[in-house]
Amino acid sequence: MNNENVTRIVSQTDADIADLVASQPADISVVEQRQYNQWDLPGECKEREGKDYKYRWLAKDRRMLDKARYKGWIICNSTNSSYIKSERWGLHGAIERHGHLFGCMPIRKAQEIKKANEVKSTEAVKYYTEDIKKNDPRFYDAKLSSEDTASDPDFK
Fold it and tell me: Which residues, in sequence order, are CB contacts of 10 under 8 Å at separation 6+?
């Protein structure tokens, strides 16, 4: 039987894949490697990041979404994020990637949360290190006098 006379019926996806395979270079070393980060922000949001909003991928688990919404994260949709291209929206009205939904928070709220976490962390470190300094004889607390710093050429 001659292969030229055989009629094949394939899906559109299979036809597209066949076209891609046929258009590839024969030598694999010619193909350039591209870096792709699946968690990158959509292009429209990169411009607004840090100016108007803070963006983040939120886990699609119900508990995690409730926790994120409690903290102030908003799931981006076509109503509150009309600047994002329409082809990015899924059937449920949100942008989804690998089990995560795309969310945003106003930058002022994000900065308040960040500042509160910084203060909380600093207080915790001070509390635990002061306790160690008092009770642990192995802890060395260097105390430099002005004479020590003046005589040391490496000290700046």
Answer: 18
Listed in sequence order, the residues at least 6 apart from 85 whose beta carbon sits closer than 8 Å to its beta carbon are 42, 44
* Count of other CB atoms within 10 angstroms of residue 140: 8
Distances (CA, A) of 125 to 29, 119, 122, 130, 143: 53, 10, 5, 8, 19
Q: What is the pTM of this model?
A: 0.57
Rounded Cα gap, residues 115 and 121, in angstroms: 10
Regions in the chain scoring below 70 on pLDDT = 1-9, 30-31, 33, 131-156
Closest C-alpha to 57, from 84, 106, 94: 94
What is the distance between the alpha carbons of residues 5 and 13, in angstroms, rounded to a whole number?
Answer: 23
The pLDDT, as a whole number, for residue 88 is 80
How many domains is the chain built from? Answer: 1
Express each pLDDT in 34-45 by its tens digit.
777 888 888 888
Specify if 85 maps to a domain.
yes
Domain containing 49 equals 43-106
pLDDT at residue number 14: 78
